[in-house]
Write a structure and sequence with these properties.
Layout lengths: L8 H9 L5 E7 L6 H11 L35 H11 L4 E11 L9 E10 L3 E2 L3 E14 L2 E15 L21 H8 L4 E5 L5 E2 L14 E5 L3 E10 L13 H4 L3 E8 L4 E7 L11 E9 L9 E8 L5
Parallel strand pairs: 12-14
Antiparallel strand pairs: 1-3, 2-6, 3-5, 4-5, 5-6, 7-8, 7-9, 10-11, 10-13, 11-12, 13-14
């Protein structure tokens, strides 16, 4: 039979099943009573404007049930060691990764500001060994009963998958370079780039140029527009230097110096007055400065097997003699 890092599934499964029914928290007490400020913050974050959550007779949104039981960084005094012991056993068997899969809540009475919440938690179930796309492991479900003055207010079930990550076969070919998102509003710009033309939108109502492309003018509201072709001349208005691990998609030998990183990404002010974000190339990243003159050029990237064909991108090269 197959194993999880040397522990037979039947042996491990039996040991895990022994945790079912064991308490994970006993007589826990919420660190704060139900309170109006926390309700307000929750509703603002969720965009919930229901009148039931405001005013002198306000109740807490039912979905806040677990909020009142959270222990913060230091945890709760009522917490037992059973849950940590269970997770430690899974870690030791090779199930070192975890992902939350779902939760279920049942509401029995509303919670109101001033209510003092108490709770008990139990390890309700541990599944048999399961194989998923993430890897092989076990689903662990805990149930928390939330009470106010001894009366059950609600039940929260939380389920995780604790698993050993699947061993993934590396891709047969280098992944393709990430492509820009093209939609109906900016398709014309990328069509121009494919033809090695830098097109700028121009409002036909007020004549203002704009970039990025928009469906309408943000100055006068006119929905009609045409385009002008930029000269490609510009200056570095601002810039950042990117530091990140090497990506397989950015290893073209002919541009390795620009792709290996660190590299500069600039906000370029074109001669026409609009600004555009793109890579600054042609000088080391630590030589890029605000005000440096640049000129647009276009690069093509061939992605083996890509259905969309070659990818063209505009970059800005420092004008020769500068930098």
């Amino acid at each position: 039979m197959s194993t999880v890092d040397g522990v037979g599934p039947d042996e491990l499964g039996v040991r895990l099943k022994e945790f079912e029914g064991r308490p994970a928290a006993v007589a826990g007490v919420g660190k704060d009573p139900v309170n109006a400020p926390m309700i307000r913050h929750w509703c603002e974050a969720m965009g919930d404007t229901a009148p039931a959550y405001r005013g002198p007779r306000a109740v807490a949104p039912p979905t806040m049930l677990q909020v009142w039981t959270m222990g913060g960084l230091r945890g709760h005094e009522g917490r037992t060691g059973a849950y940590d012991e269970l997770l430690g056993l899974l870690d030791g068997s090779g199930c070192t990764s975890v992902v939350a899969t779902d939760c279920e809540q049942e509401y029995l009475r509303p919670l109101r500001p001033g209510d003092e919440v108490t709770f008990d938690a139990v390890i309700e179930s541990v599944s048999g060994r399961k194989t998923t796309k993430l890897g092989t492991g076990y689903f662990v479900t805990t149930r928390m009963d939330v009470r106010v003055d001894g009366e059950l207010a609600g039940t929260h079930r939380f389920r995780i998958l604790k698993y050993a990550p699947a061993r993934r076969t590396p891709p047969a070919r280098r992944p393709g370079r990430p492509r820009p998102v093209v939609n109906r509003d900016n398709a014309g710009f990328w069509e121009g780039v494919a033809e090695h033309r830098l097109l700028i939108q121009r409002c036909t109502g007020c004549g203002i140029l704009r970039h990025p492309w928009l469906p309408g003018c943000n100055a006068c509201g006119c929905l009609d527009w045409d385009t002008v072709e930029a000269s490609g001349e510009g200056t570095v208005y601002s810039y950042v230097v990117m530091h990140h691990p090497p990506f397989p998609a950015f290893t073209e030998s002919d541009q390795a110096a620009d792709a290996a990183g660190p590299y500069a990404v600039g906000l370029i002010e074109l001669a026409e007055g609009v600004r555009m974000v793109s890579n600054v190339v042609g000088v080391p990243y630590d030589k890029v400065r605000i005000g440096l003159p640049v000129r647009a050029e276009f690069r093509s990237y061939e992605d083996e097997g890509a259905e969309q064909g070659a990818l063209a991108l505009p970059v800005f090269r420092v004008v020769e003699g500068e930098g």
